[in-house]
Amino acid sequence: MTSLRRERQNYVRKPNLAHVKAAGHDMLRLVNRRILLSILSDRQPISRADIAKISGLNKATVSTITSDLLKEGFVVEDGLGRTTPSGGKPPTPLRINELRYGLFGLDIRADETILALSDFRGRIVARRSFETEADPHRFLKRIGAEIIDLRVEHKELIEIGGVGVSLPGLVDNHTGTFLTSVVLPWHDVLVVKWLEDATGLPVIVDNSARCAALAEIWHGKAQYAHVRNLLYVSVSSGLACGVVVDGGLYRGGTNTAGQFGHTSIAFNGPECRCGQRGCWDLYASDNATVARYKKMRNGVVKRNLTMRRVVELVESGDPAATEAIRETARYLGIGITGLINGLDPEVIVIGGEITKAWELIEPIIGTEVKRNLLRPHDRNIAIRRSAFEVRPSLRGALTLVLNDLLSLPHIG
Ligand SMILES: [Zn+2]
Description:
Structural class: alpha/beta
Strand content: 15-25%
Largest sheet: 5 strands, mixed
Strand order of the largest sheet: 5-4-3-6-9
CATH topology of the largest domain: Nucleotidyltransferase, domain 5
Helix content: 40-55%
Radius of gyration: 23 Å
Mean pLDDT: 85
CATH architecture of the largest domain: 2-Layer Sandwich
Shape: globular
CATH class of the largest domain: Alpha Beta
Bound molecules: zinc ion
Low-confidence stretches: 1-25, 408-412
Distance between the termini: 23 Å
CATH superfamily of the largest domain: ATPase, nucleotide binding domain
């Protein structure tokens, strides 16, 4: 098991026991089922013998659990196995039945909210987008109706594992509450309660940067396999971080850690919506980049100019857009250097629209970091873009549910 993947076991809200109760299994059986499903999810198609080897479970246990999983439709046999060199009976590889569970992911941002339904393997089968509304209760009721609608449309998915929700601000994932945000004027919103009431499905919430960090742990590249400390920098309308420390997601004393966007980098800078002056967010977020571009064009731009559009303008060779993004990259480098000096991560992952201009921003961030890092010569920091160019937080919302279904439960 990779060190980062230990996070799966640290992250469970509650075990989904419905199917286990129905089948009358005990807790040990549940634990073993999840170990087995987790291995299948990573390595499929895979034979029973290989599952036993990797999990350390004995072959009889693996065989019993897989036959239950086959009966219940979680797992299917993947055609005929290859003939062994000795001509023996070929092992039949197993794979997860992607139709067994549907996963809902809801990525709420200040401007636009995306609702997606994926199968159990994470393939998105439906996607709807909405303008985020000012009244959260009304909006979440509407989203609840859309979820029920999509559920009816996709009856091929046997069961729904839950709804994962990514939120742009301070989130207490234990109480399921969106506390506050400088980009979205919602306060103390009972997201889990309202969505569970509206859909009857289990709902899990977290902050968007932490969701994206979780997706990186689950789906990120193999080079993170031995990484124990990772910093995820989410560049969106705001700026926030997901911090993985010693193999686990860092949450802090009140579950709100990671808001590095509101660290001041300019004592006499402009006033931020959070009340401080010169926050990093004011220089390196998408809002900052869009505002910078508008200023460079003396305000002669289309209304509702988005970050996506600014990045497209870079691709088409627009000099003002290119300079606006270069400037953002410098500020990203400055902030990231402080975080490296303070947290000493092995890998920095950057996610958001700006990473579509990776060839432009990567060398600038790298130069800035090298210039200001303590001990620059004996440090080898990897700075990478997210595995997900489009909406990493949506992928993170889906991963919240997958994580809940496949992680080990808390016992006792
Ligand atoms: Zn601020």
